[in-house]
Design a protein that fits this description.
The protein is mainly alpha-helical. It contains 5 helices and 2 strands; from the N terminus they run αβαααβα. It has a two-stranded parallel ribbon. α1 (2-16) packs parallel to α4 and α4 (71-92) packs across α5 (99-129).
Length: 131
């Protein structure tokens, strides 16, 4: 149920809350990082929130799927989820299809998976101590 609520929230944030502006894309790798390093602070938020948005994906998916519990599988699943978001934005004209978003969202999913592993290990240690 949490995963479905998360998907609905992401759909709202990335597509439904936006007005159509036409189909746009930017496939220049790491453009937002370059602009950030040039002093444009706007891109810090863009990078940070794109990473943060998919951290829950990396934490929740392994809870509901035993097949997606390895680093390669969560990386691939995170990329596919991000690609679906970007493609939906492009098709609907509600957002910008960007390489950097694909990269940042995938990083967020991987970070979420790392948090999942840490929290899983903490819970196992806790439960072993309760015996």
């Amino acid at each position: 149920m949490m995963l479905l609520i998360y998907f609905a929230a992401v759909l709202y944030i990335t597509v439904l809350s936006r007005e159509p502006e036409g189909r746009r894309y930017d496939m220049e790798p790491f453009r937002s990082y370059s602009l950030l390093l040039d002093g444009n602070g706007f891109y810090f938020n863009q990078i940070f929130y794109n990473i943060l948005m998919t951290v829950p994906f990396g934490m929740l998916v392994p809870l509901v799927s035993k097949k997606i519990r390895t680093l390669p599988s969560i990386t691939f699943a995170g990329f596919c989820f991000s690609f679906a978001i970007e493609l939906t934005q492009y098709i609907t004209g509600r957002g910008l299809f960007e390489f950097d978003d694909l990269f940042n969202n995938t990083i967020g999913a991987v970070l979420g998976y790392i948090f999942f592993l840490i929290l899983s290990g903490v819970m196992i240690v806790y439960l072993r101590g309760k015996k």
